[in-house]
Structures are given as C-alpha cells and as structure tokens.
C-alpha cells in the first residue's frame, strides 16, 4: 500500500494534469495526522496546506479561474504555456513558441524564431540585417552596418569591410582628429598633440606651439631642419647646411665643414686656393691677381691677401690702408681708427691727425715733439 501511494504522488508531481491520492477527506482538504485539513484557498485539491502543494485547480471561491503549473494554481500561465480549461492546467505551446492560445496555434515565436506554416523556425538573418522583435522579420540595418541594434537598426555595433564605426555609425572615412583602424574597423582618436593623423604614430597636423616633423609633433625642430612658422612644420635645410634658419632651405647658419656660410649660403664645392665658387653656375672661378683668396660673387671680392698687402673694408687688397684706418700687421687687415681720428698708426687710438668734428687737441708722437719749437710746446 505504501509503495502504491508513493508511486501515485510521484506521478502527480511530475505531470501537469491534476490528480489526487485516494483518501477519506472531501475535496479541498487533505489528510494530516489522521485529520482532514483545508488546502490553500487557491487549490482545488492538494497534498499540503501551502500554496505550492496543489494537485488540481479550478474555479476558486471568488469565481477566478486557476491553472496548475509547478504545483501552484495560477491565474495566468507563464510564457511558452497556455491555459487548458478542460483540465485547468498550464500546458506547453508548440516548440519555440512564446505565446499561444492552444497547443496547435502560436501567436508569437521566441526571439530568433519566425512562424512559418504554423511552426516556429529559426531565423538566420543575412549580414547587415537584424530580426524585428515584434514581427520576427529580418530588416536591413543602416548602410555600412554589419550588425546593429534590434531596437533601432540605425544604431550600428560593427561595420562591413571598408566602413569604420564612429559613434554608433558606419562611415567610409573617419572624421578629423581620428584615424582609421583597419584591423578593428573603427575610428580611433589621434594621440595628443596631433590634431589630424593617419595612425597613432603618424600625424598630419599639430596643436599650436608644436611643429610637424616626420609624422610626429615636437616642440623644437632638430638639427638640419628649420621651423616654418607659417605652416608649423620642420622643413629640411639644404644639404650643404649643418644648421639653417629659413625662410629658405639654403639660408644656412653653419656649413657642413664647420665654416661660416658665404652670403648666407654654403658652397657645395670646395674650390682650390685662389678660386671662388660661383653658386649660380656651380663652377669655380679664379680670384683676381691681387687676392690670395676670395669668396665671390666677384673675382675682386678678396678674403685674404699676399704678404705686404692688407685687406680693406671693401674686400680689396691694398699696400696702404685708406684714410680712417690703419694696417694691422698681425691680421693683415685694414682696421678702423677710433671715431676722433682722421688717421692713425699701429692701433685705432694712436692718432696722427684728428677729424674736423673733434675738439680733442692734437697729441703728436714723441718723435715729432722733439722737432717742434719750444714756443709751440
């Protein structure tokens, strides 16, 4: 008898249809310690007094229909089940059906399934499509989208090849201050201080105060380049320059050989002694016979003289320095006298005559003082 009772209770627990164990208690009650006890008010029949111990359901005392599901008598069946009024139980819809009115007709299939010929079939939308959660139909995402939101097909989550995701939109080209990451198909921000770039290591434009050099934004241009403030770029110096200042690439500060530039430019050819470089024709020409060396652009533009000659302020080699200068035997240059001297010897302050504008008394050399009459002294 005990084995039969256990078998009946097990069958009741597993199934959906109401059943009851044979007892002497009337409907709506159950046996507890040889006494009949009332079931929970929602149950028609039960095997305990709790609301989750129902075995059959029906119309309760308030006239409300109730349906058995997992040992509870519910007013509504969960999704995927329908209310069977013949047995007052929740029975399953057809497979993959979410809402139904009976076991044969489905009103709405589960997500990713579509009702076709009365059956819920798995929906496989094409790339660039998404399933409409209301109709189950495949609808197109926004142009360029590979995948998009089911709630709004204009909101992209990934892009097809050739498009890049930027702020939930797929674009053919990334906007300024971003660059195209082809591997991930997204637009990424340029690194600071770039304002436009092709990658995270190659800038096109920089923030004010920075100069573009080789795809990088730097504060100061390196050697053999000069900063072009109009374009905020580091421009290369001419290949003859070690350093340059612009605005032209040939405006050198220092030549590669360490020499100072001639006329702001460094000659590409080192001409032999006694010749100068003609930058216009890229040729070496002989200096004038009076010059030991010259720098051009004319043959008479001497830079040093032969012994016994001195280089004057005009770049000519002379045997006697012009008025207002003296011959410096150490440098072989004609150097200017001091401003008060009209002429001087040996150094700039050793005057032998004064300028007309000077009120300074004339002080002749000691050799001349001895020859002057005493009444002049």
TrEMBL record:
InterPro entries: EGF, Furin_repeat, Growth_fac_rcpt_cys_sf. Residues 1-19 form the signal peptide. CDD domains: FU (cd00064). This is EGF-like domain-containing protein. Keywords: Signal. Residues 92-121, 140-171, 189-218 form the EGF-like domain. PANTHER family: PROPROTEIN CONVERTASE SUBTILISIN_KEXIN TYPE 5-LIKE.
């Amino acid at each position: 008898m005990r084995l039969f009772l256990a078998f009946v209770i097990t069958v009741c627990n597993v199934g959906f249809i109401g059943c009851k164990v044979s007892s002497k208690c009337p409907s709506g009650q159950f046996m507890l310690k040889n006494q009949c006890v009332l079931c929970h008010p929602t149950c028609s029949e039960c095997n305990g007094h709790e609301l989750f111990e129902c075995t059959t359901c029906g119309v309760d005392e308030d006239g409300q229909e109730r349906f058995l599901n997992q040992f509870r008598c519910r007013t509504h069946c969960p999704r995927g089940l329908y209310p069977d009024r013949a047995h007052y139980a929740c029975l399953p819809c057809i497979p993959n059906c979410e809402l139904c009115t009976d076991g044969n007709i489905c009103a709405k299939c589960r997500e990713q399934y579509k009702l076709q010929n009365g059956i819920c079939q798995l929906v496989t939308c094409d790339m660039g499509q998404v399933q409409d959660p209301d109709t189950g139909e495949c609808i197109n995402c926004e142009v360029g989208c590979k995948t998009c939101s089911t709630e709004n097909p204009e909101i992209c989550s990934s892009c097809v090849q050739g498009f890049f995701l930027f702020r939930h939109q797929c674009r053919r080209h990334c906007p300024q201050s971003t660059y195209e990451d082809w591997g991930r198909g997204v637009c990424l921000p340029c690194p600071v201080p770039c304002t436009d770039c092709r990658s995270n290591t190659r800038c096109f434009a920089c923030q004010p105060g920075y100069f573009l050099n080789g795809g990088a934004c730097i504060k100061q241009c390196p050697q053999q380049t000069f900063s072009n403030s109009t374009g905020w770029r580091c421009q290369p110096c001419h290949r003859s320059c070690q350093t340059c200042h612009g605005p032209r690439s040939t405006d050198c500060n220092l030549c590669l050989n360490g020499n100072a530039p001639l006329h702001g430019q460094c000659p590409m050819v080192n001409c032999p002694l006694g010749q100068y470089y003609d930058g216009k024709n890229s040729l070496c020409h002989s200096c004038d016979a009076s010059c030991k060396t010259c720098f051009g652009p004319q043959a008479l533009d001497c830079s040093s003289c032969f012994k016994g000659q001195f280089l004057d302020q005009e770049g000519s080699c002379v045997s006697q320095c012009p008025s207002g200068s003296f011959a410096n035997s150490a440098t072989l240059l004609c150097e200017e006298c001091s401003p008060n001297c009209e002429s001087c010897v040996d150094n700039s302050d050793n005057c032998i005559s004064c300028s007309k504008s000077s009120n300074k008394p004339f002080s002749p050399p000691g050799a001349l003082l001895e020859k002057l009459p005493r009444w002049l002294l």
